[in-house]
Amino acid sequence: DIQLTQSPSSMSASLGDRVSLTCQSSQGIGNYLSWYQHKPGKPPKPMIYYATNLADGVPSRFSGSRSGSDYSLTISSLESEDTAIYYCLQYDEYPWTFGGGTKLELK
Amino acid sequence: EVQLVESGGGLVQPGRSLKLSCLASGFTFSNYGMNWIRQAPGKGLEWVASISSSSSYIYYADTVKGRFTISRDNAKNTLYLQMTSLRSEDTALYYCARDYGNVMDAWGQGASVTVSS
Lengths: 107, 117
Hints:
Chain A is mainly beta.
């Protein structure tokens, strides 16, 4: 099975900071990676699909990138509403696998 | 408006069975693949199963293979997850989600399943 390793597992940042979350794949998955934002009491919300594409309704401060088997979700200027747990998901092959998540908090 | 509403969750003893339903509305259900994803208490998200629009293709996580069955009734706009031989580690919030090709773009609010004696 493909393993996704997210780093860091948690982090805190200040309002307005540029934040980057990383997801590393154990094998090649091309661009078949998406990112989800998960807040307590709510279902996950898609943020990025096919590694670099912004999902519908997602603010432009979010972006996705890829370098080899490393994938990143970047928030250009952190806002309070961005505090959540972020998960990457590979859908290149079954079984689909999620990363362990990065918990993003405000400093 | 796209809506997915899960039902059928509850408290069940280990070894027993439970069937979850996910009623879809606001879109042509028969055109989309569907998925079940779960989150155990204090844990991350785990993909459980996927089914194609016509039920031709079905996939399971190894943790549930042979115990869970995903199915759908396109006439009733409903997705199902039949869970048998339940274990304590199956305790989780179960979400259904629509497959929009490269992304699961619509999710239900989740159905809570607790496996305990």
